[in-house]
Amino acid sequence: MNFADQLAAATQSTGSVACVGLDPRKASLPKKIIPVSDSPDAWAAAYTLFCREIIDVVAGKVACVKPQSAFFEQLGPAGCVSLGEVISYARLKNVLVIVDGKRNDIGSTATAYADAYLGQQSPWGGDSLTVSPYLGRDSLEPFVEVCDQRDAGIFVLVKTSNPGGGLFQDRTTDGQTVYQSVAELVREMNEGRVGKCGYGPVGAVVGATYPQQLAEMRAAMPTSWILIPGFGAQGGGADDVKAGFDDQRLGAVVNSSRHIIFAHRRAEYADSMGEDRWQDAVEAATIEMNQQLSW
Ligand SMILES: O=c1ccn([C@@H]2O[C@H](COP(=O)(O)O)[C@@H](O)[C@H]2O)c(=O)[nH]1
């Protein structure tokens, strides 16, 4: 089944448009998870355990999960093993996986990235991957070919959630901004690939922190799923993300990482649940996010 249709099915079966970001950080892990040894192997095992427990809590309650490769890579080779284990576990639990790797390079190297993360023999086995558009159309094509072969998906960085993203993305050439040009390319690359749900495998990343641009991008890429980061810890709220959806409440998933996975540290859960019941805090924060997104 086309990746876009898989994502639509996941939002419908779970009743959720939330994506939980798996961004393990040493300094924020619950005490119970912190390893005795400070070695990369011990931390990697802790990251795997932490993420597996989160997946157990959120499976069936959210549309997808998004492991952030940077936090795993920080641990070196052992962290990469952990990332692979986390992706496999999510897929075992029937949770769709967006690998947040923001990869890309010249076409021939992009082919290697595409095969690595999404290909039929992919050792990582992600369902989808975030990619950078800045090397141009030929750098995106290998990913799109692999999407066609394996019913995988990509999310192209269009308008990122960070405060400084506008330095290049908002620059105007030939009467349109860079992010508008990227959106045009994303729309074109979905042509002929649209699934039953009305969307195709070439999606976009647009931050919750730019609600006006989110509305503009929804209209500019009518067949693209939008991955919306920036909800929660970065200040985006439910009203900000509404514009990313179509009339059927389809077409977007909203990511939250720190606010969900480290919910035991948030004031509202710290007293009632705290460290010992950190999984309950994750569950409560997930339910809260789903409620906020159920307009
Ligand atoms: O524009 C972007 C693209 C990606 N991200 C990633 O999403 C999560 C956000 O984490 P929070 O803890 O919910 O802030 C993180 O992995 C980022 O690298 C983004 O924030 N903005």
What tags apply to this protein structure?
295 residues; alpha/beta; TIM Barrel; eight-stranded parallel beta barrel; two-stranded antiparallel sheet; binds the ligand O=c1ccn([C@@H]2O[C@H](COP(=O)(O)O)[C@@H](O)[C@H]2O)c(=O)[nH]1; EC 4.1.1.23
Explain this structure.
- By secondary structure, this protein is of the alpha/beta class.
- It has a single domain, classed as Aldolase class I (TIM Barrel, Alpha-Beta Barrel).
- It contains 13 helices and ten strands.
- Helix 2 runs parallel beside helix 4 and helix 5 runs parallel beside helix 6.
- It is globular, with a radius of gyration of 18 Å.
- 51% of the residues are buried.
- The mean pLDDT is 97.
- Bound molecules: ligand LLZGTKA7.
DSSP strand count: 10
Strand portion, in percent? 15-25%
What is the terminal separation in angstroms? 28 Å
Question: Reading side by side through the largest sheet, how are the strands ordered?
Answer: 1-2-3-4-5-8-9-10
Name of the CATH superfamily: Aldolase class I
Low-confidence stretches: none
What is the helix tally? 13
Listing every helix as H and every strand as E from the N terminus to the C terminus, the arrangement reads: HEHEHHEHEHEHEEHEHEHEHHH
Shape: globular
GO molecular function, one term: orotidine-5'-phosphate decarboxylase activity
GO biological process, one term: 'de novo' pyrimidine nucleobase biosynthetic process
Protein name: Orotidine 5'-phosphate decarboxylase
Enzyme class: lyase
Topology:
Elements: H1 3-14, E1 18-22, H2 40-58, E2 64-67, H3 69-73, H4 77-92, E3 96-103, H5 107-118, E4 128-131, H6 137-150, E5 153-159, H7 166-169, E6 172-173, E7 176-177, H8 178-189, E8 200-206, H9 211-220, E9 224-228, H10 238-241, E10 252-256, H11 258-261, H12 267-270, H13 278-292
Helix pairs in contact: 2-4, 2-13, 5-6
The site of ligand LLZGTKA7 has 18 residues, from strand 10 and helix 11.
